[in-house]
Amino acid sequence: MKWNTLAVLAAASAFVLHAETAQEKGKRIVSECLDALGGDRYLKMENREETGRAYSFYRERLSGLSIAKIYTRYYPVQDTVHELGQRERENFGKKEDYGVLFTDKEVWDITYRGARPLPADRFVRYKETTLRDIFYILRMRFHEPGMIFESRGADVIENSPVEIVDITDADNRTTTVYFHQITKLPVRQVFYRRDEVTRDRDEEVTRYAKYRDIGGGVQWPFAIERERNREKIYQIFSDSVQVDNPKEAESLYSLPSSIKLLKPE
Prior knowledge:
Elements: H1 2-18, H2 22-37, H3 40-43, E1 47-58, E2 61-74, E3 86-92, E4 98-102, E5 107-111, E6 114-117, H4 120-131, H5 134-141, E7 148-157, E8 160-168, E9 174-180, E10 186-194, E11 201-213, E12 219-228, E13 231-243
Antiparallel strand pairs: 1-2, 1-13, 2-3, 3-4, 4-5, 5-6, 7-8, 8-9, 9-10, 10-11, 11-12, 12-13
């Protein structure tokens, strides 16, 4: 009996010594997610086109809907903590004749009248949201110095078994991500930020669903929903998503030299 007890204690001690720390487990969970999204193929993704129906909401009421085409392109940056390595063009309508351009420093509203700069707080919100988005983190910031991945354990959230991980960067910005235990893919993320105008603390929640292979094994959610302070603000349901279109024009991500520049409102 004595030897059996010692053997059990020795095995238990060995298990404790080799058990994962919260940070080791968090890093493993996020690494498994990256593999599920396409691994090296995902990391080499240069551009993406999403086509579908976009809905905006105000106080839970539908305030706008449109056919949308969202173009995204990644750019190398030196300081991934503070620099934005992504540009985005959102075109609306069947003819894509109006939309919004997000560069790495500003936002432009584009119509047939010309291009009008949008308020600085609009860009600040876009940049903060992008830097803390799990898909951007995996594509651009995964190996960033000072990035910490810390497991918060398992749970069942919205009927899905999940592993919860806090992702914190060198500036102490934290995004909490919920990864499905079976698919390893993100189903939900949460972070908090200060509104640039009101200085209120906003809770930003995004849900991801209906993943599909968009080429070369890369997985992408075809249903995305965003909430702010428990109120739905945005949804997109994609009909198609294409990755690394060789015909995509670089001109999409900058203002044409001939466009009329309008004064800010």
